[in-house]
Amino acid sequence: MNTLAKSLPVPVYAPPALRLDPVWWLGELGRREPVLAGTGILIGLAAIPMALAGVLDPRVFNGIDVWIKPVKFATAIVLYMLTLAFFAGWVSRKDRRKWWFNAAVWLFAAAALFEIVYISYQASLAEASHYNRTDVLHIVLYALMGVGATLMVAFSGLLAFLIQRNRALNVAPAIRDSVVIGLALTFVLTMIVAGTLSAWGSHWIGGAHSDAGGMILTGWSRDGGDLRVAHLFATHAMHFIPIFGVASAYIFGAGNRRPVWVFSVLFTSFIAFLYFQALAGQPFLPFIK
Question: Which entry of 17, 135, 201, 278 is 20 to 30 Å from 34 by CA?
Fold first, then answer.
């Protein structure tokens, strides 16, 4: 039994010795869900030439290098896909063999590839990918990207449901709840924020509609509201809450689920604050430039 399992009073699954070997981890993800892991790795490899293009290409869009956006999206999608590939291993084998589950996996992978290809292609032209309604073709492609993004987010909700009903899963209750809640909130909260983004027609609310002068690393607006802040934290509920769940299992006990639920409520409240802060036209952390 591994170290994590020994430290907890009830059974819990964790990779052997919490290995830090990236090659081993890639193999483990491939065994859990090869399509998602393979697609994530492919997009990660594609980010390398895009990053190189950012060094060599002097063009800018919205005040920043044209290749920053596709590199950021590729990085986010890789993290998202590899995380879901890991959690897919917690779905029962019976469900993983179902045709509808495999169809959902392939739809997710196709949507991710379409999104990164379209964003990268538009970047190569120094044109907008999101909110681009210059002609019928771009309106259709943007709509398809929205459908694809919805499918990608919905997959996290599907995993939450399937993991919750897998009663044979040998995972500590605190960790199990944190994963299920994190995946479910990623779906629900992201859909709310993304729906507002689509309806608003821009992630900026007030201030200069430019990424120039945005927050370091993130590019978030410094002189107005920016819905990308709430969007980021909503999408990564599947990371923040499970990380807390593991820590909670160590500190408060593997069978104590209450801290996970309390943290989940607080995390949801935090995202609600970020959401309404942006709608009010106020920048996130206004004292940081």
Answer: 17
What pTM did the predictor assign?
Answer: 0.88
β-bridge partners, 204: 226
pLDDT digits (tens, 9 = 90+) for 59-113: 998 888 999 999 999 999 999 999 999 999 999 999 999 999 999 999 999 999 9
DSSP string, the chain: --HHHHHSSS-----GGG---HHHHHHHHHHH-HHHHHHHHHHHHHHHHHHHHHHH---EETTEETTHHHHHHHHHHHHHHHHHHHHHTTS-HHHHTSHHHHHHHHHHHHHHHHHHHHHHHHHHTT--STT--SSHHHHHHHHHHHHHHHHHHHHHHHHHHHHHT-TT----HHHHHHHHHHHHHHHHHHHHHHHHHHHHT-SEESS-SSSTTPPTTT---SSSEETHHHHHHHHTHHHHHHHHHHHHHHHH-TT--HHHHHHHHHHHHHHHHHHHHHHTTPPSSTT--
